[in-house]
Amino acid sequence: MSLLNVTFYFFxxxxxxxxxxxxxxxxxxxxxxxxxSCLLGIAALFILSMAEFAGVAQILLYAxxxxxLLIFGIMLTNKSGAQPIPIKNTGLFxxxxxxxxxxxxxxxxxxxxxxxxxxxxNAGSIEKIGIELLTDYVxxxxxxxxxxxxxxxxxxxxxxYKASRN
Length: 166
Hints:
Four Helix Bundle (Hemerythrin (Met), subunit A), about 0% strand
């Protein structure tokens, strides 16, 4: 077994165990950390699959942006002091039913799909993607940045809000 296979199986196990921990953990902060671990493992799998741009985008957008913003929101809105916010897992049967149904749909459609590599492998180079992102698609990234800033400001406002007693 080569080092690449061992590394792949390590990150595969990391992603699977983080996803299971995300499902069954009782503390919301620990769930956010499990989500961060899962997303970083997926980024490592992208990089091992020679999709470096997708891996770096996964780290920057999801692990670096969304999860950190989620952790800040949890920390800023936690009004109970040292008491963690409990998570109650209700609807286990419905979740298992929907999850298994989606899994079998995914399995069905991936078994019917034809996965063919394009003839021109240079078409999606990182340099071309970077030029496109900074010229033609710069507006969606600016709007996303403003939206994330507004969410962070809203979380800080909610955390600092004190109701006046009249």
